[in-house]
Design brief:
Strand content: 15-25%
Order of helices and strands: HHHHHEHEHEEEHEHEHEEEHEEHEE
Low-confidence stretches: 1-7, 17-25
Radius of gyration: 26 Å
Strand order of the largest sheet: 2-1-3-4-5-13
Oligomer: single chain
Distance between the termini: 76 Å
Structural class: alpha/beta
Helix content: 40-55%
Shape: elongated
């Protein structure tokens, strides 16, 4: 039977007919159910990763393979009003942490039958707003974002959003790691290695974000331990060479080639690598003279040894929870407004052995 689209039909009717047309010559879920000798609902549960008995699961999987059944997400989306596409917005995929995060999010989305639409804002507010608008126009089902601007104000319609680390005015869902405890862990590890004059160095947006708690945890633990400490927040000033802000600060606290601080914790691993290079270029030995701890847990080629001693974020778990919460919002389910995941310390050669 041929399915025809009529121009006078309303949008919903034409959409339903289009869905029927793309499935016209394909094995259906009913065919799988009949072949497996189970209910259609059982097949649906297997296809969507829900629990069924091992016996029925095996029957369904064998029938799926036998009939060559493939879930048609286009037709399924037309019927349900979904595109099964999610937009992911990050500042810069050249940053190893964001690259790992995006990779983990894509993996989770794919396992849930979703496609990923990737955008990088490069911290540009106008570009970020453009991508948010574009995502809505292309009818993605939701957005996972790492943003450094107030671009959510540019959204003309409400769309399910999950932010990594950020808090937005519209109160959307946020997933983060325990940044405050990360700052505490860094202080404890620096003290255990013998440091007594500690410094926290930070760059990045000062907008409301869970990452600001890294410095707060650092300061709170220093006060608790009664140890001398200082903080240097350079905000969005990432100028490094030649004689950038960070290097000027370090030089101002050096006498005769000796840095006043003997333990440094930075807000990111990328920043820690900059500090390491600056210290070593001045003949300061790490970790003999100064211990350095970063934050993120980056590894060489993403699966080799740690690049430096670091507070490790559970990136894969952050991606898993982020995707789970986004799909929950898309289905109009209640989700936790804020999820905080645990962090750990990893030795990477820039702290003294304890």
């Amino acid at each position: 039977m041929q399915t025809k689209l009529h121009p006078e039909m309303n949008a919903d009717s034409r959409q339903a007919l289009a869905a029927a047309k793309v499935e016209e010559y394909m094995a259906t879920i009913k065919d799988v159910a009949n072949d497996a000798g189970v209910a259609v609902g059982t097949v649906s549960k297997v296809l969507n990763g829900q629990y069924v008995s091992a016996k029925n699961k095996k029957k369904v999987e064998e029938s799926v393979a036998k009939l060559g059944y493939e879930m048609n997400y286009y037709a399924r989306g037309l019927r349900a009003g979904y595109t099964y596409t999610a937009a992911v917005i990050v500042p810069d995929i050249r940053n190893p942490f964001f690259a790992c995060l995006v990779s983990s999010i894509e993996k989770e989305l794919y396992q849930k039958g979703y496609k990923m639409f990737l955008c990088q804002s490069q911290k540009d507010a106008e570009k970020e707003a453009y991508y948010l608008k574009l995502a809505c126009q292309n009818r993605v089902d939701g957005i996972i974002g790492v943003t450094f601007n107030d671009s959510e104000k540019q959204l003309q319609e409400k769309i399910p959003m999950v932010m990594i680390d950020r808090h937005l005015e519209n109160g959307c869902c946020c997933v983060s790691s325990d940044n405050f405890h990360g700052g505490e862990l860094a202080v404890r590890r620096l003290l255990a290695g013998g440091s007594r004059r500690l410094l926290f160095v930070r760059t990045g947006s000062r907008l409301s974000s869970e990452t600001l708690k890294r410095g707060q945890g650092f300061a709170a633990e220093c006060q608790r331990q009664g140890v001398f400490y200082a903080t240097a927040d350079f905000g969005d000033d990432t100028d490094v060479y030649p004689l950038g802000s960070i290097e000027k600060y370090l030089l101002a606290h050096m006498r005769d080639g000796v840095l006043y601080y003997d333990g440094i914790y930075t807000s990111t691993d990328a920043l820690a690598l900059v500090v390491l290079e600056l210290l070593r270029s001045r003949g300061i030995l790490v970790p003999q003279d100064v211990q350095v701890i970063g934050h993120d847990g980056l590894k060489r080629m993403n699966n080799g040894p740690y690049l430096l001693s670091s507070i490790v974020q559970p990136v894969e778990e952050m991606a898993r929870v982020g995707v789970r919460n986004l799909l929950g919002l898309i289905r109009k389910e209640a989700v936790e407004p804020l999820t905080i995941l645990p962090v750990t310390f990893a030795e990477g050669g820039t702290t003294r052995k304890v």
